[in-house]
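Ex. 9. Protein: Amidohydrolase family protein.
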Amino acid sequence: MKKFWIHAGTLIDGTGAEPKKNQAICVENGRVAAIEDFHGKNEEEWVDLSEMTVMPGMINCHVHSLSPVGISDEEENALTTMEKAWWGMKNAHDYIDSGVTFVRSLGSEKYYDLEMKKCIEEGKVVGPHMFCAGRVITMTGGHGWKSGLESDGVDECRKHARELLKHGVDLIKIMATGGVMTPGVEPGSAQLTMEEMKAAIDEAHKADRKTATHAQGTQGIKNALHAGIDSIEHGIFLDDECIDWMVEHGTYLVPTLAAPRCILDAGVEKGMKDYVLRKANLVVDAHIESFKKAYQRGVKIAMGTDAGTPYNFHNNSAFELELMVANGMKPMDAIVASTRNGADCIGVLKDYGTIEAGKVADIIAIEGDPLQDISCVRKVRTVYKAGEKLKG
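Predicted structure tokens for Amidohydrolase family protein:
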């Protein structure tokens, strides 16, 4: 690949360090080769982003990459395989267009997310880097059972974890509690036991894969933590014991504040079912309080939106940053949550998440100063993925 330079007006490198003005970034063979003060252009190729804030491509650690958004359940259930593929391609493009260059897909019908990842890697579809969980492990009738692997007992959880690994998943997702979207289950109720989850987690860790869990209720969160989970998704009813454990063991929280908020903002007017609205109203305040307490106490936090849930659009990752800042997170910490911490949570920090020499050149340019107004992350004007210009 070609070598070129970027003249960055302001550089936020994703590490949490203070921004630097007037920087020159050398990109060669898809990676950052050097970063230095800008002293004028040499004779090599230059990209002028001197009026922009340059930062790493954002990482969304919780998406449902093929799920359509903005259509009814009935319309979604009637989609053909070809129509589902179209939605997957649209969603992949929406991530890139909104400055998201890496996603972690946490639950898909069959193994469609792995197929989309393959198409992106082969250049057939424009989209972000992907880590994919494929199908989730849930108890019979548990949250996400329609597309998940229903598993009861230690042996079934272990077997299904091995089955997922055979299909080539990048991580394993487990359902520790009920949730908002599945009828007949409650967000606060524990589902898979600690022993069942530990069997799946052990298989993942033996294969050098990370694990994530949908975990909303307190007891289910504790079960997952004691089973050795790597990230808690949602974490709606965290107590002090959960938070102490997460701080001590370095367990990530991916809050997905956007998910219930999007449901409630849509409301009855956009067809939200009564049971969904009831459960979203039940969790929304506790969700915010748990996030605030976790942040204040030093839990590691990575950005994820749960995109693919109702009216939670794939091009709206910025909403999660806005919600985090509105609820007490410093803007720089929100940027780190969506860059460096996202890469660390996924397990790819060696190559992604920050703009540093040697790392993959996933770089975006935005208008304005997100440290003064976090909504500036909506104003994405240029996107590079592995040094290839995909927008701008």
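Check your answer against this statement. The CA atoms of residues 369 and 376 lie 6 Å apart.
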